[in-house]
């Protein structure tokens, strides 16, 4: 269902799912949970239900933030493009996500910025990274438009983006959320090449992949 956090009438199911997610996260030592907004109900007009979905989203995010704070965890919200990936997904742009986070007003809720979705919806990645950097809790990457490895043909210059993240002071992980063209090991070959280009040892000081 791509989440339930913004889906009216599904609050009880959202809370059940969140409670289970917290137990899984505690078991594996994961400090953050992606709170997926969910889809505009089938057959509904997006504009007509936007207000109700936003109210539901804010209510659920506040509940989640308070619950996660008890466990010293962070909640993440991720804009997912509605042009290619999921036409009905509710949360689509960094601007929309930032507005929601401001309305919720909880310090342990952050932006999960997937550069694949951000490029498709808005582009202007350098400015967006700088603008929304104080809100960012996690970064994900994939080349555009194929959603493959960062060194595959596409629109994004990842060496530049990685250096920009370093200059901004980002110290978290960068999630590789792409579809490898081959097998997993082959699909990570770009990272060895990147480390070598930066004169870093394999698995060295860089946290460029998780």
Automatic annotation (TrEMBL):
InterPro entries: Sugar_Epim/Isomerase (IPR050417), Xyl_isomerase-like_sf (IPR036237), Xyl_isomerase-like_TIM-brl (IPR013022). Pfam families: AP_endonuc_2 (PF01261). GO terms for molecular function: hydroxypyruvate isomerase activity. Residues 5-193 form the Xylose isomerase-like TIM barrel domain. The keyword Transcription regulation does not apply. It comes from the Eukaryota. Coiled coil: none annotated. Keywords: Isomerase. GO terms for biological process: glyoxylate metabolic process. This is HYI isomerase. It comes from Thalassarche chlororhynchos. The gene is Hyi.
